[in-house]
Every structure is written in C-alpha cells, then in structure tokens.
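Exam review. A common question shows you a sequence with its structure tokens and asks you to describe the fold in words. Practice with the pair below. Do the first one on your own.
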Amino acid sequence: MQFSVVNFGDVDLGNRIDAEYFQPTYLYIENKLIEKHATPLRAFCYITGSAFYPAATHLYETGDLTFIRCVDCIPYPIITSRQDDLFEKIPQAFADEHKNIKRLTKGEIVITKVGTPCYASIIHDINDVALSRTVLGLKHIKNINPYYLVAFLRSKYGFLQLFRERELTIQFQLTLDRVGNVLVFKPINKFLEELIADCFSFHEVLKRKFENLFNEAENLVLGELGLSNWQSKHQLSFVKNYSDTEQADRIDAEYFQPKYDEIVKAIKSYPGGWDALGNLVKLKDKNFDPQDKVEYKYIELSNIAGNGEITDCMVEEGQDLPGRARRKVATGDVIVSSIEGSLSSIALIEKEYEQALCSTGFHIINSKSLNAETLLVFMKSIVGQLQLKKGCSGTILTAINQDEFKQVVLPKINVTIQNQIQQKITESFNLRKQSKHLLECAKRAVEIAIEQGEDKAIKLLQEQAKEAGL
C-alpha cells in the first residue's frame, strides 16, 4: 500500500484534492525538480490549442493542409513529411477561415490532449500544420532546444507530470493552464542539450535508411510481378456480366473495379506460379483463453505503426485484458489487420513478442513456401493492400472476413528473391532498433542528468554514439 502525508495548507481546495494527485511518485518528481531549480514550461513557449471550429471530417478527402490528431503523435516523437500518407488533411481555406484552428511550424511541439494524452512530438520538417481539438501546441519556443524539450517531456520527469495534471471531465484531458505549470529542467551545460538534439538527428538518419530498405524490398516484389510502374486507376464506369455478381455474391460496384483484375492477372502470370492464400499459408484462428492471474503482452491495432513496427503493447493480467485478446502469436508470424481503414496495420512478430496475445481483429499467418519477410512486404504493398480492400464487406464496421482473406492471390516468389527480401527487412529492422534506442538514450540522459548529474548524462550519450559508430 502506498500513501502520502500532505499538509492541509498545501492543498488548494479550489484546485486539486484528489488523492491520486499526491501519489509518492508525483511528489518525488515535483520535489526533485524544485531542488534542481526547474522552470515552468510556460516560461519557454506560448501554449495554444484549437477550439470551437465546425466538424471537418467530411473535408479530409479534399484537404491539402496536414491536420495533426492525437493518433499521429503517440508512436512518433518526431513528426516528418515522410508520414504524409498517414495524416488526415483539411483545406487550407477552411483553416484560414476558422481562426480558432491553431497552426504550428517546424521546430514547434505537439502534445496529445485527449484520448491518450501526455505524449509530446516535434514537428521536424513540415512548414505548416493545423491542430485538431485532440492536441495542443507549444509555439515560439525560446531559451531551450526544442528537441531537448521533447526528450524531457517524453522522459518520466516530463510525462508523469503531464499525466498528473490530467483533469477528468467526460474523459481525461489536459488543459493549457495545467500544461504551463509543468516544471522543466534546463541543463546548465548547453552541450547536453546539443547531444540530445543530435540523438534525434541520428534517429532520423537511421529511420530514413530503414525505410529505404523496406521500399527496396517492396520494389523487389513489384518488379518480380512486372508491376514496378503500375498505377491504380479508379474507373467511373465499366461492364461486368451478371453471372460475375452471382458467383461473387456481391453487387457493389467497387468490388468489380478493373484495377483488382489487373493485379490478379499479373500475379497469375508470374512464371513461378501462384495460389490462393488459403493454400499457401497456415491461418491461426483458434481462440486462446488467458488465465486470470497470468500476465500477458497484448498487441492491438493501435500498436502497429505505418511502417509495420509494433510500437508498444499492453501488459496486463488475463482477467484485465479486453475480450478481443484471444489470439496467441509466435516469432515469425505475420499479423494482418482485417478492419478496413487499418488494413496497412501489418507486422512481423519478433522474439520480444513470442507468445504474446493479439486482437481478434488480426488474421495471423505463416508459411513454409513464403518466408515471413516476403509475406509482410507483399501484404503491405499496393498489390496486397488492394486485394484486402476488395475483400472488405459489412455495414457498421467493414472488414475482410476469413473466407475472403483466404481468396487473396499470392505469387510463389522465387527463393532467391525471397532471400534478398529477407536480408533487406532484417537489416531494416536492425536499423529501426538502433534508431529507437537512440531516442531511449536521449530520454534516459535527461533522467540521469537530474538524478546523477549532467557529466554522467553526457558520458552516457558519448558512449552510445561511439558504440553506434556515429
């Protein structure tokens, strides 16, 4: 049992009297930062947020201005133009007309406000972004390196302060005033700030390399199928036989778009042969019943980033897991989202997630004739994604069911090409781990500077840079 003894005179009855606010961990962090002469966040920036603008979801398809939401920030401490396909967009004119939609530019910081609050991210190379209601922004940052500031806000000393300052109305959320109260430790030695900023720069270099390797692997697949320069074209009109609708048991026009036939024709023309997914892979569809008192890792759709990375997972006892946590995965499995709108949420299970559970919203596959890396790349490529999209059906929640999933057409990729793909993906994953490690080192350096001194934090970063060959 944990408890804190707080003087009544220290409690503002018009502010916070809830016991959670005075947890020992929060009090330790507050006292440690006061001891270090930390400064309120509002001294370093102007804190802003969007409010009172009309609904904009219907404008996303015609938008041209990046519209930052909570989900864009949580797995991404650095927001870059390379994530462009993941962003929703609103028309520039709409944002100009509604002045309550606030804007940020590169070098400024976003903090998630509602939904999953408290995650900070920096706008790295985008000149103009708009903020949704689910985030707030730190503008005009001065007297502190913004990359260091993100590392601080993502460290336990920043994140737990933000977590403490959440207010519960309908749901937990942050307010501008409370965020401004967060204490920020600024190093005396500016070199520490610069080293932490370098961690972010090196992270971006490595990230570009691993993304390029993934793209090279995808190009190998498309090149094998003769689809390197193929472009998806949506036709407004075309002719199909009525017998085709009867055979497919579908009458929606989208299902019969010629672009799907073009892809399937290319795969069926592959010299190495082809087959239906149901014949080439093992589909793991048996439910697993977690034991109440056993702790499990649980992967859900929101844990899969656009690049196929599992960014995080829930760790809970079986009795506390959601009802959809019913599928067990193993190293080498590929998990494929079945939900339209999240079809690109596809990942390769690595050793750290051996025997983890995942949502029933995933199809879990592995194959003896196609290695896991080739399956991953194929399913994430335009060839795989369009087939998944074609198979989706439903009303309230459209998804690709197991029968449709089994009908996805797969090429029997040449073993030499499979080995090349495997090599690129393995190298890509190693670079990804290095890039993530650099950001973890940046956060840890902040914590060491506060707890053990700035010299030790500098030593850690220099050792890690040398070890990584940077």
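Now try the second one, then compare your answer with the model answer below.
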Amino acid sequence: MYLSSWSSAAAISTTSPCNWEFITCNSAGDVTGLGISSASLNGTLAELDFSAFVQLETLTLVQNDLYCAIPEAIGNLTSLVSLVIQHNPRLHGPIPRSVGHMKQLASLRLQALGLDGAIPDEIGNLTSLKELYLDDNNLTGSVPPTVGKLVKLTSLDLSNNDLAGTIPVVIGNMTELQILNLADNNLQGELPGTLAQLRKLSALFVTNNQLGGDITPCLRNKSSLIEVNVAGNNFSKISAKAICAGGSLLHFVANDNWFADLHDLNFQNCTSLRFLDLAANGILAGTEERIGPLPLTLRNLSKLFSLDLSNCSLTGQAHDLLITDQSILSFPNIEILALSSNYIMGTMPTLLCNANFLKILDLSNNALHGDLPNCLWDLPSLQLVDLSSNYFSGIVPSSMSSSITLQSLHLANNHFEGNFPSIIKNRYKLITLDLGGNSFTGEIPSWIAESLPQLRFLRLSSNMFSGFIPQNIFQFTQLQLLDLSHNKLIGPIPVDFANFTGMTQEQEQEHGEIIYFFVYCEKLQLVWKNENYVYRRMITFIMGIDLSSNLLSQTIPEGLTTLPGLRYLNLSRNHLSGDIPKDIGNLALLESLDLSWNQLEGEIPPSFADLKSISTLNLSNNGLSGMIPTGSQLQTLVDPSIYGNNPGLSGFPLKDVHMHLDEMTQARMMTE
C-alpha cells in the first residue's frame, strides 16, 4: 500500500516522511497523523508496518480502494486517539479483537465497509471512547453487554447491520450518551427501561427493527430530547404528552407501527414539534376500525412544518381536519402535508391556499370531490401535488401565477375533463406529470415539450386524447417514462427516438435538483408486466414506453432500438404493420415486451436471442412466420400462448405450426 506522491523526487530527497503528502509529525519528527482520503489508495492494510508508528495518534482512511481484512496488528497502535476507516466497501472480515488494546481511543469510526461477524467483547476495553460508529456494515450477533463499560460515550451508531437479540440493559450506564442509532437491524423485545437514565439523550433512532411495547417509560420528560425515530417496528403504545414534557422535542417519526388510535397519543405538550410522521398507524390487527378526525391536541401544533398521517384511517371532512374553529389554517407553517390513503371527504378547503410555505401536498387516495380551487396554483413554494385517486371533477383551473416551482403533479384516477390542462404550460421545472385515468379530451398540445424541458415521467394513459402524437415530443431529452396508452391516438409512431437520451442510459438517473425531503417519497402507479404496481423509492429505475390500446398505424420505428436503457415496451392493440425492427436485440435491459394484437408480419428477428433480461413477452395475434429464435433467456418463456395466433410460426414452445382452429381460438381468448 503506497502512494505515488511518496515516490516523487521531493519525497525521495529527504529521509524524513514528515514532508510527505497526507502525513503529519510532531516537533520530534515522529509521525503522529496519517490521513488519506479520496486518493485512490489501493491495497491491503496488512502491507502497513504498524509497529513503525508507535506515536501515531490519528489514522484516517476514507473513500479509497482498500480490500481484505483489517489485520490484528492494528492493535499495536496503542497511542491512537482517532481511528477512522470509511467508505471502503471491499474491506471485509471481522473487527479485530486487538482494537481492545487501543485504550487511548476517543473516536472509532469503521463505517460503510464490508465488515462481518460479531462486535468483539474487547470493545468494552476502550473506556476513553466518546464516539463509536460501526454503521453500514454486515455485522451479526447481538450488541455485546461490554458496551456498558463505555461510560464516556456520547455517540453510538450501529445502524444498518444484521444485529439481532435485545438491546442490552447496560446501555443505561452510558450516562453521557447523546446520540443512539440502532436503526435497520433485527433487534427484538422492548426498549430497555434503563434508557430513562440517559438524561443527555438528544436523538434516538431504532427504525426498522422488530421492537414493540410501550415507548413512553424510556423517554418520559427528557429536556434534552430533540429527535425520536421509531418507525417500522411493532410499538403499540405511547404517550406523546409524556415524551414532549421536556419541551425540546422537534422531530417525532413513528410511522408503520401499531398505535391503535391517534386520540390516545395526546399531543398536549408538543407545541415545539416541527416534524411529525405517524403514517400507516391507526388500524388494529385483524380489523379496519376508522379512528375519526384529527385530535384537537394535534390540530394545535401550529409550529409543524411537516405532517404525515397517511394510511391512518382518518375520517371526516377536509375542512374540519385542516381548519380551526376560528376559520384559520391549523398548520400555518406547514411545508409538507401528507394525508393520503384515509377516508377524508368533502371539497378541498380554499383556506389551504393560505399555506404560503407549502412545498409538498399529498391528499391522494381519499374521497375528496368537486372542483379544485384556482388559488392552489398560486402557492409560491409548491413543488409536489398528489391528488390522485379521489373524485375531483370538472376542468383543471388555470392560473395567472408566474410561479415555476412545481416539479411533480399527480392528478390520476379522478373525473377531470376538458382539454389538456393549460395550467401545466411553462412549468419549466416539472419532472413528473401524471394525468392518467381521467376524461381529458382533445389533442396532446404541441407546446408540451418546449414548455416542460425537465420532464422525466409523463403518464397520460386511460383518457380520451385523440389526434396524432406530437412530432416534437422527442424534445423531452430527459424522459424516462412515456405512457400514452388507452387513448384514441392515430397515425404513425414518430420516428426520432434518438433524442430520448434519458432512455439511452443503462443506469437509473438522479432526480436532479428536485427537492424530495427525506420524510416524503414520491409514488407513481403503472401497469408493469401486466400487473399494477405502485413505485415509490424505485421511481428513478423506471424506463419505459407504453403506447398500447390506441389506433396507431404503419411500422414500428427502428429508432426504438437505440434506447439501450429501456426496460418496458408495450405497443399492443394498435394497427401496426410491417416487420419487427431487426435490431431489437440491442435493448439488452428490456424486461417486458408486448407487441400483440397488431398486424405485424415477417420473421421474428434473430436478435431476439440477445434479449438477456426479457421475462414477459407477448407477440400473439399478429401475422408472424418462420422459426422462433432460440436464446438462453427465451428458453425460459415456456407459455406457447405468447406466440399464439401467428399461423406461420414454429419452434419452441409451440407444439405444431398448424394449430387446430379451436386451439387458436382458445389461445386468442386467453390473451384477452
């Protein structure tokens, strides 16, 4: 393990390494610090002679290319005060037991590596330790009881490992502890009552474990407590009033647990709360009991900037949920409001337009109806609106506002009508537009591409759009999803697919500048491989084109084969004719292809054998002929109906090219 800069003329000209890059020394010329970050350092730690660094106090190796295990010899660095090894994923093996010899250590950070095995008991020998970060590894076993000896510890992070068992009660001995992160493991049981002894605790994260019981006794009346995240567990009881009694709690996240009734939580003392997520609670095991409107103590949290009560079985009128008795907005400082998947009824309150800081509004999957208020589009900070799966109707209102902050708009599965909404024009930052499942009519406007240059996800399916697909639709250079299915579009498919550079990438793209707070995850509903899917965190993986169930004609453009990132292509149930493009095998990542119910003819191109990722295929009900190509992945598609009603086809998995007419009819019925 050596750096090229250490072999330079300047380095060779001196016998002392104190002038070398990344090395620091004391006045006596002893090496006391070695810090190599993002230097493409390649090699194993076994190549270091640790015995030569008896005075070394700090060792930092971050974001390099180290591999193999951390050697036991590292324990010879007995003067070490800080050991930081991060973001070297090929560095694997167990944590060496010899770390217990480094009794001067105040900071130990072994993060984002490939470490496995149990946390050694010897970790308890590091009684000077103030920071212990072992997160983002593959550590197994239980949290060793010897951690109770680390009484000076202020930060403990063991998150994102495979730790099991219970949280040891000795953790209550760490009376200096301020941050405790045990998230994303397999811990069971209840939070130990000894957590109540941690009077300086400011942040607790136990997200995504299998913990249960009552949270309250451990966290009651802590004046230092600022943030609590217990999401993704089996907790069933909590008194927010007791936890907030210390007066400092700002963030409380408890989504995906088993709290039966929001009214039992009692937010009376939580007036300082800024961030509250209780999504996916309120449904008792084995029942679907609706818990009613928002508790009054919750509606009085006027300082909230983020509130997520999605899937909490809330009922009542939207006005009663969001507006106080004094006819003012319950949450005047709200930036993120997510109340999706409840039983909220009525019309959208116009007073919601007073939420001038609102960035994200998700009221999807409720029973809201009526027209949308015009003022909604005037909100100056609005970035995401999801009103899908309600009963909104009428024409989407226009606005005189010049605001261009909107980045995602979901109006799918309502009863909107009229032409393509003009409110969308010139929303230059728009990335996601979903108008599917409504009754929009008329043509798709020619201005759509030039007005929405950042668009990546366009879904207009299941409407009544007519006319031609605009030629300039290919100005959507960043588009990853184009879904125009189930409309009345006519004419040829435009040919210039080469401009769809967003689909030429073989890796998923970043969301660009879009601001999606860690508290909210955008969702998009699609028909994928003949099934309905709701994509959430995987939305950037979506790359597909669906033009099915229209009146499109002429040939399939060869340009489609220039999109190697494409994972989904559906052109079924149109009037397409001619041959299948010969280079379709270029779509190496294609998982689903449906060209059924057209008038395609000729042979299936031999390049089909190159579709290494294909798992869903339908070429039935065309006029194809010749032999079906063979390929390792094609041989796994054993259902003959995917080639059915192509009288001239033969080969696996078809039994006989001359199928009996009754068998052909039956195969056709199976695809309908």
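Model answer, second protein: The chain is about 5% helix and 25% strand. The first helix runs from residue 9 to 12. Full marks require stating both points clearly.
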